[in-house]
Specification:
Elements lengths: L9 H4 L2 H51 L11 H72 L7 H39 L1 H59 L12 E10 L6 E11 L4 E8 L5 E2 L3 E10 L10 E6 L6 E5 L3 H11 L25 H17 L13 H11 L2 H4 L12 H13 L11 H9 L3 H12 L4 H19 L1 H4 L3 H12 L7 H4 L2 H13 L1 H6 L93 H5 L4 H11 L4 H4 L34 E5 L18 E7 L5 E6 L2 E6 L3 E3 L1
Antiparallel strand pairs: 1-2, 1-7, 2-3, 3-4, 3-5, 5-6, 6-7, 8-9, 8-12, 9-10, 10-11
């Protein structure tokens, strides 16, 4: 049974049982007081722990933001650029989450701690004061009664009457105080039910709001997360392909290191120990130097370098060689030595020691010493042995037979072209196909003797066995450059142009193969071979550098991108002639600096979500549209980085949209173009960025600029001067680029659309206008004011 009610009538009787009931009420209030005191303490500890967690999360976010990946080579793919920027995205996500957590911590103080402290102080504290008064009056009342009853009856009547009146008045005062105290006790027992629980409800509402905001942040992040997963998968696939090529090169060099020495500008280079003579008492010392010699100029460079001291580089010396003489062991107590005399240092002779007798002979040959070898110090790179595979009538027959068999029997096989056949079976099939007598007898479409994976491996092996890759050594560098820079459209245009520079047979064979790969990618839901996966498989097959080096293999990922572009744009590249208005890219063979692709639809960082309201009247900053944006499911085209990735080449989003937010990092085209002659440079700008004022308004296929950026991806021609954004009062505007809305606050429109009541938005680079009765946001540089 719970607490018994305190009857007001019992205040006059003040029975022992009444007093027991009062003490029970008082004990319950004391227990409540202690509980609230502990709860407040725990709440403050919770706030402190939340703040500590927030500090740790922010430090973690700060560490993520400051780290930047370094890459090997002179350029990165769009995938790698997005992966590099992902750490800053993670940092921004945590930062936004911690802002919500801080508001939640503040809400705990305002909605839980302060109300409980107020209840404990004003209500429970008031009852304590009433109890003190009640106990004091009880003592006073019953002491007065005892004293009054001890009065002698022999006292004067007037004195007794006065004493009776005083006692009665005191008893009446006590009864009134008792009534008030009883009322307060019962009131506080009822009041605590809502005044204590209501702050708890507000506290949990704040927690629910925080978790809901976290859910909303995760929901906004989901679109980017899916795109990043595709970026990571593409990069992993390219890594696997590159790793196998690098390991193959490593094994070749391990077996024959001399046959794979890189061509060098020096006739000879390597480490030598140089004798440094000292005054007589101290003898001499031998110091390791890295030495380089140019035979044509007879110029000798040597730089002291000691690996064991942390790779410290010393000051180098340069002199011109006069003569070189071999030292015999009878004249010096060291092996593999020779002397060098400098033409510009008369009377000075340097004694040097090679690592071995063979290396000494090589140095003597290079320096014109007496014991010269018949071979050069820098062994020439042995060319690839020519196989019997050729781009002749038989070669076309082999490729067509393999393609026909694959499309008839295995177009839906999972891992098509990635699953490798048994080597012995592949070689046997190839030998039969490459024999004129047996080629036509081999039935690949109806025979169960040949598995599909054997046929696909034979096709790839045949293409790799060609004396020159299908896309030629000569144009290899030209194909790689547009894959490293420019907008998606400029990449396609450049590769389109270069394909038509291939020899006719190469282009014909490439057309047959790419048409087949396009068909394979169209069945990617069944065979899982997306455009990106096919790029990984056929990048090294169709393209390879003439000289095998690690630097060249680092460009393998760009070879994959070239193949992706060929597959995705097969009809345009092979069925249409290249645009003759574009100049020939004569300087594409030079490796440009890292030029970024077209910027994403938003510049800057991910915008803060609207901060949550936690039952507080707080002044909040920079709220976005709280409506969640529509989730898009990435299609198979997202697997390729040759086409505009949703992360790097999407249409512009609204201010406050959390999609497609990455900025493209890298060098500028202007740095590269500054080394090109003026006439060629201006044409190259047009080549890599065909968005001149004469074409943008008439050609809807050109890529519009990013909001807030110049309409030109790179430096615009001298005739175009960018003006700062003007404040726009209410007027009309016409669209000069098409735009597809990806957010409820954004307008979709085609070229030529007329906007009414156009005004400047509070977001930089955006306007607000009305189209077909709907009001929304418009990228400022997508329209022309009328």
């Amino acid at each position: 049974m719970g607490l018994q009610p305190l009857e007001f009538s019992d205040c006059y009787l003040d029975s022992p049982w009444f007093r027991e009931r009062i003490r029970a009420h008082e004990a319950e209030l004391e227990r409540t007081n202690k509980f609230i005191k502990e709860l407040i303490k725990d709440g403050k500890n919770l706030i402190a722990a939340t703040k500590s967690l927030s500090v740790a999360q922010r430090k973690f976010a700060h560490s993520l933001r400051d780290f930047k990946f370094e890459f090997i080579g002179d350029a990165v793919t769009d995938d790698e650029r997005c992966i590099d920027a992902s750490l800053r995205e993670f940092s921004n996500f945590l930062k936004n989450l911690e802002e919500q957590r801080e508001i939640m911590a503040l809400s705990v103080t305002e909605t839980l701690i302060k109300p409980l402290e107020k209840f404990r102080k004003e209500q429970l504290g008031a009852v304590k004061e009433e109890k003190k008064k009640f106990d004091k009056e009880t003592e006073k009342n019953y002491s007065l009664i005892d004293k009054h009853l001890n009065l002698s009856a022999k006292k004067k009547d007037s004195h007794l009457q006065e004493a009776d009146i005083q006692v009665e008045q005191n008893r009446q005062h006590f009864y009134e105080l008792s009534l008030e105290y009883v009322c307060k006790l019962q009131e506080i027992q009822e009041r605590k039910k809502f005044e204590f629980v209501e702050p708890m409800l507000s506290f949990f509402q704040g927690m629910f709001t925080f978790y809901h905001q976290g859910h909303e942040l995760a929901k906004d992040f989901n679109h980017y997360k899916m795109e990043l997963q595709i970026n990571i998968q593409n990069t992993r696939n390219r890594f696997e392909g590159t790793r196998s090529e690098v390991e193959e090169l490593m094994n070749k060099i391990r077996q024959n290191p001399k046959d794979h020495k890189r061509a060098s500008q020096f006739t000879a280079e390597g480490y030598l120990y140089v004798q440094e003579k000292r005054p007589a008492p101290f003898g001499s010392s031998w110091v390791k130097h890295y030495c380089m010699y140019r035979k044509a100029a007879k110029k000798f460079n040597m730089i002291p370098f000691e690996h064991r001291s942390g790779g410290k580089l010393g000051d180098g010396e340069v002199f011109f060689l006069k003569e070189c003489t071999k030292r015999h062991t009878d004249s010096i107590d060291r092996r593999f030595c020779f002397d060098i005399e400098a033409a510009d240092r008369p009377g000075v002779s340097l004694t040097m020691q090679a690592f071995s007798e063979e290396e000494r002979k090589q140095w003597l040959e290079a320096l014109g010493g007496k014991e010269a070898l018949s071979h050069s110090f820098n062994t020439a790179i042995i060319p690839r042995p020519e196989g019997s595979a050729q781009l002749d009538k038989l070669g076309f027959t082999i490729i067509r037979k393999c393609i026909s068999a694959v499309e008839t029997r295995g177009i839906n096989d999972q891992g098509l072209y990635r699953v490798v056949g048994v080597s012995s079976k592949v070689q046997r099939l190839l030998s039969m196909l490459m024999d004129v007598k047996t080629c036509h007898e081999v039935d690949l479409e109806n025979s169960a003797d040949w598995e599909v994976k054997t046929i696909t491996s034979a096709l790839k092996q045949y293409l790799r066995s060609l004396p020159e890759p299908l896309m030629t050594y000569e144009l290899h560098g030209d194909f790689i450059v547009p894959a490293k820079s420019g907008s998606p459209e400029s990449r396609v245009n450049a590769i389109h142009f270069l394909v038509h520079k291939l020899p006719e047979k190469n282009k014909e064979m490439l057309d047959i193969l790419v048409k087949h790969l396009t068909n394979v990618s169209n069945h990617s839901k069944q065979n899982l071979m997306t455009v990106a996966n096919l790029g990984v498989v056929f990048g090294p097959t169709l393209m390879r550098p003439q000289e095998e080096t690690v630097a060249a293999l680092m460009d393998l990922k760009f070879q994959n991108i070239v193949v992706e572009i060929l597959i995705e744009n097969h009809e345009k590249i092979f069925r249409m002639p290249p645009d003759t208005t574009f100049p020939e890219p004569t300087c594409l063979s030079a490796s440009p600096p890292n030029a970024p692709p077209r910027q994403s639809k938003r510049q800057g960082q991910r915008t803060k979500r609207p901060v949550a309201v936690y039952n507080l009247c707080l002044e909040l900053e920079d709220g976005d549209n709280p409506n969640p944006s529509k989730e898009d499911t990435p299609t198979s085209s997202l697997d390729s980085l040759s086409s505009p990735s949703p992360v790097t080449a999407a249409l512009p989003g609204p201010p406050g949209s959390d999609k497609n937010h990455l900025l493209a990092d890298g060098g500028s085209f202007g740095d590269w173009a500054s080394t090109i002659p003026g006439q060629t440079r201006s044409s190259m700008v047009q080549w890599l960025n065909p968005q001149s004022p004469t074409t943008t308004s008439s050609n809807p296929a050109v890529t519009p600029p990013s909001p807030g950026s110049s309409p030109f991806l790179f430096s615009p021609p001298a005739t175009v001067v960018d003006k700062p954004p003007e404040s726009v009062s209410s007027r009309k505007a016409r669209a000069v680029y098409p735009c597809e809305a990806e957010h409820s606050s954004e307008l979709s429109f085609e070229i030529g659309a007329i906007f009414e009541d156009v005004q400047t938005s509070r977001e930089p680079g955006w306007l607000e206008g009305t189209l077909n009765g709907k009001r929304g946001l418009i990228p400022q540089n997508y329209v022309k004011l009328l």
